[in-house]
Amino acid sequence: MRKGKRKAQIIQEEKEERCFIVRISHIDIIIGFIIFVFFHYSNCLLITRAVNYDLRIIGTVILFTIFNVSK
Question: What are the transmembrane regions (predicted)?
Fold first, then answer.
């Protein structure tokens, strides 16, 4: 009985690690997007307002991706 429980715990840990890897790749894509947005708006005079607005959008995107992966 106890041995079976240990095996289940190991399987659960492996699943969590896999989720973590997926999250990292999502975050990499999002960081790339942030950099792209930053360069795109570096020509703008309204840089602070534009970046603030984009960070809000990106924040919701991050929340959604983490929520979807953790499902």
Answer: 20-41, 53-70
Non-local (6+) Cβ contacts of 61 within 8 A are: 30
d(CA 54, CA 13): 35
Residue 48 carries which DSSP code? Answer: H
Question: Cα angle at 64 between 44 and 22, to 5 degrees?
Answer: 100
Judge contact between 23 and 66, C-beta under 8 A.
yes
Given a cut of 60, whether residue 4 has pLDDT beyond it is yes
Q: What is the pTM of this model?
A: 0.29
**Cα three-residue angle 67-55-43, rounded to 5 degrees:** 150
d(CA 20, CA 24): 6
